[in-house]
Amino acid sequence: xxxxxxxxxxxxxxxxxxxxxxxxxxxxxxxxxxxxxxxxxxxxxxxxxxxxxxxxxxxxxxxxxxxxxxxxxxxxxxxxxxxxxxxxxxxxxxxxxxxxxxxxxxxxxxxxxxxxxxxxxxxxxxxxxxxxxxxxxxxxxxxxxxxxxxxxxxxxxxxxxxxxxxxxxxxxxxxxxxxxxxxxxxxxxxxxxxxxxxxxxxxxxxxxxxxxxxxxxxxxxxxxxxxxxxxxxxxxxxxxxxxxxxxxxxxxxxxxxxxxxxxxxxxxxxxxxxxxxxxxxxxxxxxxxxxxxxxxxxxxxxxxxxxxxxxxxxxxxxxxxxxxxxxx
Length: 328
Ligand SMILES: Cc1cc2nc3c(=O)[nH]c(=O)nc-3n(C[C@H](O)[C@H](O)[C@H](O)COP(=O)(O)OP(=O)(O)OC[C@H]3O[C@@H](n4cnc5c(N)ncnc54)[C@H](O)[C@@H]3O)c2cc1C
Known about the structure:
Layout: E1 5-7, H1 12-21, E2 25-28, H2 34-39, E3 47-50, E4 60-63, E5 66-70, H3 75-80, H4 88-96, H5 100-105, H6 108-112, H7 119-125, E6 130-131, E7 134-135, H8 136-139, H9 163-168, E8 172-176, E9 183-187, E10 210-217, E11 223-229, E12 240-249, E13 252-261, E14 268-269, H10 271-277, H11 284-294, H12 306-324
The structure holds flavin-adenine dinucleotide.
């Protein structure tokens, strides 16, 4: 591991200042992935800025129109917090992370900014995984790569497990920096980027910026669920997932939002599938039609055709699970 300076700010403003002082920095939250990235020298910052001592980033608070969650809230705290008990799709994600150590130290911000698990990226070929002008995922083993949004050079899948559920809830993120006092709220859906170059990164974050909070609208009478298709019972990454948020009135869908995970370089919003559910009852048949629609435009690679069926199953099961949890 290359040596680096270590900074431990106590306020959000101090964190932004520490990030702005040197050119290459890395943000440390729970550290469950960053420590591996540092050890493998996949990131080689001059300074690591540890956010753990900033109290405002650990808070979950009720605000006028919803709930504000600090980016350092751990998976475990998220699942236990009484203000979040009606957001079942988030609880489903925590439940799916089968390691109490990760639940206790992994954070919401760390999950949202988790770099791709693509094995070419993790073997130092960059986000686009190119060698001598050739796409390694296209030429080689692509069994865990994208089946949607993969027509450009990016073939990895977004690693975040919470992003599909949060986007389906209409979450916004607060990005602070790089200038002191600079803060902007934006829909989480627009936070992710499908890069066309390695330098572009996979989020809109620029050097000196970080996520401070996530905002969720009031749960009201909405129901939600996440369904992740896992290969192993233990700690693993989903091969495909889907989150659904629904409003049902007298058994008829009035509002629907479906977002898929681990199928594209960004969380994949299944707009058409969501739209066609409006005005329908939710049952096996309508859930199947929505699931088929969600994957209609899939363009699997040479070894990952199987993921199309997994994604379809995830959408159908997330919808049926959400409907089961709908308030009567
Ligand atoms: C051995 C091991 C295996 C694991 N395997 C799995 C697995 O199979 N499945 C699974 O779901 N999880 C797994 N995890 C956990 C995984 O790392 C989590 O997704 C966790 O939520 C990351 O959170 P963190 O706070 O530890 O992130 P960190 O490691 O601290 O950060 C992750 C990334 O996000 C950036 N970052 C963090 N916070 C912010 C912020 N607020 N703003 C901007 N950037 C930020 C960091 O710079 C870094 O690039 C594993 C962890 C370990 C240690």
